[in-house]
Design a protein that fits this description.
Blueprint: E1 6-12, E2 16-23, E3 28-36, E4 43-49, E5 52-58, H1 63-76, E6 86-93, E7 104-105, H2 108-116, H3 122-138, E8 144-148, H4 158-161, H5 167-173, H6 182-195, E9 202-208, E10 212-218, E11 221-225, H7 247-256, H8 260-269, H9 272-277, H10 283-291, H11 295-318, E12 324-328, H12 329-334, H13 336-350, H14 356-361, E13 367-368, E14 377-380, H15 385-398
Parallel strand pairs: 1-6, 6-8, 9-12, 12-14
Antiparallel strand pairs: 1-2, 2-3, 3-4, 4-5, 7-8, 9-10, 10-11, 13-14
Bound molecules: adenosine-5'-diphosphate.
């Protein structure tokens, strides 16, 4: 292992910390794993390397201890000879607000900015920063880089990112659409460019996991994306509503006699596929229930698919056509069932022709589903947000 060749991508959530180690510049995955249930009475730690998996159950009271555990096990298990080989750490930061249109080396000013954005994303930016502080404590002298979920969407025009609310709310409180999953949408267009020579490139990217968003991308620049001020907006998701009439917040609070905080939390955690089906947010279970004829599962899936199809139609118009439609994330990569439902809603309007059998058997790999006669190419491309974090960290760490 060469000196200073290892880069770590970190995704720190409130109770979990996921990591991947890559050797650069060859982009070789060295190890991956996570600390889960941080702060609960019993946590879990796992580390995968060289086809081996090492798992452990123990209390992990906070992010500092999760990072200590991770770094200690990298040495103990012989994954790294010493910390000296670590050249940089890239941290996923969900909300970069209007300040960041690309990744940056983290310094005190950047930390202050990210802290100032906590009110816009309290569930994300706070734990993202905790992850950074924990790594910085141990790895003090190497570069740490912030990679923002929102950055790739900063190319939107005001007509696309402003909401029709009193203008001062937008200017004084920065209440506007930011969009999320930016690293994933960007990865998809970069990979697509290697796979096809479409020109001009007008691409609709569909990141459909339990959190889900679509983006309309023209010549590698986002013109529109479905998530909004927070990841609650846009298409329906596993437990989130996506776009709804905001009056629902007001009337549900009155009817249920609950605070707007409680209703807001229900819109985030008890809605979407879970809320409509009354069963589960997991698309795998809903697919089984749907095929078994369960009416609520069918209804939940129909709503889900219709909302995605509506956004695809909207983005097709926004882009004045599209050259490619790309699916990724848990559902988009793995579920031929959901892809078929979505494609069948949009194919006539968009002139899509695709291989039904190939779609049903495609799981977790790069495949072109459309036939040569299709007016829009349809692709499945597994996303890799960590490699985007690593590439930016590597690039910024090289700078003098
Ligand atoms: P997030 O990153 O937002 O938590 P994921 O991208 O992991 O979400 O997606 C989770 C969703 O993807 C779940 O609804 C799950 O059922 C679905 N999913 C994950 N793996 C598979 C698979 N192998 N086959 C079908 N669906 C899958």
């Amino acid at each position: 292992m060469k000196n200073k060749s290892i880069y770590i991508a970190v995704n720190a959530g409130s109770s979990s910390l996921k990591f991947k180690l890559y050797s650069m510049p060859e982009e070789q995955l060295i190890a991956s794993g996570m600390a889960d249930r941080i702060g609960q009475s019993l946590g879990e730690f796992s580390l995968k390397f060289n086809d081996e998996k090492y798992a452990l159950e123990l209390p992990i009271p906070n992010h500092d201890l999760a990072v200590e555990l991770l770094l200690k096990s990298l040495i103990e298990k012989g994954v790294l000879p010493s910390f000296d080989v670590i050249a940089g750490v890239g941290h996923r930061i969900v909300q970069g607000g209007k300040y960041f249109s690309g990744s940056v080396l983290i310094d005190e000013q950047v930390v202050e900015r990210i802290e100032s954005l906590i009110p816009l994303a309290p569930l994300h930016n706070r734990p993202n920063l905790q992850g950074y502080f924990a790594f910085k404590k141990v790895l003090q002298t190497i570069p740490h880089v912030a990679v923002f979920d929102t950055a790739f969407h900063q190319t939107m025009e005001p007509q696309d990112y402003l909401y029709p609310i009193p203008y001062q709310w937008s200017t004084q409180y920065d209440l506007r659409r930011y969009g999320f999953h930016g690293t994933s949408h960007q990865y998809l267009v970069q990979e697509l460019a290697k796979l096809t020579s479409l020109s001009p490139k007008k691409v609709i990217t569909c990141h459909i996991g339990s959190g889900a968003s679509l983006a309309a991308i023209h010549n590698s620049k986002v013109v529109a994306t479905s998530m909004g001020l927070t990841p609650l907006g846009g298409i329906m998701m596993g437990t989130r509503t996506g776009d709804i009439d905001p009056s629902i917040l007001h009337f549900a609070a009155l009817k249920l006699n609950e605070s707007h905080e409680t209703i807001y939390s229900m819109l985030n955690k008890q809605s979407g596929l879970l809320g409509v089906s009354g069963m589960t947010s997991d698309s795998r279970d809903l697919e089984v229930a749907h095929l078994a004829g369960n009416e609520r599962a069918i209804l939940a899936n129909q709503l889900f698919v219709r909302r995605i199809a509506d956004f695809i139609g909207q983005y097709y118009v926004r882009l004045h056509q599209a050259n490619a439609l790309v699916f990724t994330a848990g559902i988009g990569e793995n579920s031929g069932f959901y892809r078929q439902l979505i494609l069948d809603e949009v194919k006539d309007a968009l002139g899509i022709d695709y291989d039904v059998e190939l779609n049903l058997k495609t799981r977790g790999k790069v495949v072109k589903l459309s036939t040569p006669s299709s007016k829009v190419e349809v692709w499945v491309i597994p996303t890799n947000e960590e490699i985007m974090i690593i590439r930016d960290t590597y690039r910024l760490a090289q700078k003098p």
